[in-house]
From TrEMBL:
Keywords: Hydrolase. The keyword Acetylation does not apply. It comes from Phytopseudomonas punonensis. This is 4-hydroxybenzoyl-CoA thioesterase. Belongs to the 4-hydroxybenzoyl-CoA thioesterase family.
């Protein structure tokens, strides 16, 4: 996880609870996706945008596609650091690269990419992100932007 344009990379910390694990005490694979979803939500919050407020304004973010690669298991009580780096910022979508690392040894446990689309809450059709939100991601995310349509 490297800083881009002098901006510290965003990371959300969480702990592995019993409910996150299988019978062997290992994090069930789909729960990494939940950890990454929470990190994206906290990334928005850090930029000053709550999903509940955006939904009230008729805007939702939905996962269009996801890709995950698993490297090592997390276990009960591990503290995790989950990054949410914006790779690509478009008019109506964001591409995130995310990593889940164990805090104790910085081991990479899981990594993935997610294409997240901005849609209208009433009909789930694509819509442009509000300019203040796009600007916040552009300034803090360090990602390349595109002015082309999605």
């Amino acid at each position: 996880m490297r800083a881009q344009n002098g901006v510290q990379p965003f990371a959300h910390r969480c702990r592995v609870y019993y409910e996150d694990t299988d019978a062997g005490g290992v994090v069930y694979y789909v729960n990494y996706l939940k950890f990454m979803e929470r990190a994206r939500t906290e990334r928005l919050r850090e930029l000053g945008f709550a999903q509940s407020t955006l939904a009230g304004e008729g805007l939702l973010f939905v996962v269009h596609s996801s890709e995950a690669r698993y490297h090592a298991p997390a276990r009960l009580d591990d503290e995790l650091s989950v990054s949410a780096e914006v790779l690509e910022l478009n008019r109506a979508s964001l591409r995130f690269r995310q990593q889940v690392r164990r805090v104790a040894d910085n081991a990479l446990l899981c990594e993935g990419q997610f294409l997240v689309a901005c849609v209208r809450a009433d009909n789930f059709k694509p819509r442009a992100m509000p300019l203040p939100l796009r600007t916040a991601f552009a300034e803090q995310g360090g990602a390349g932007t595109s002015t082309a349509g999605d």
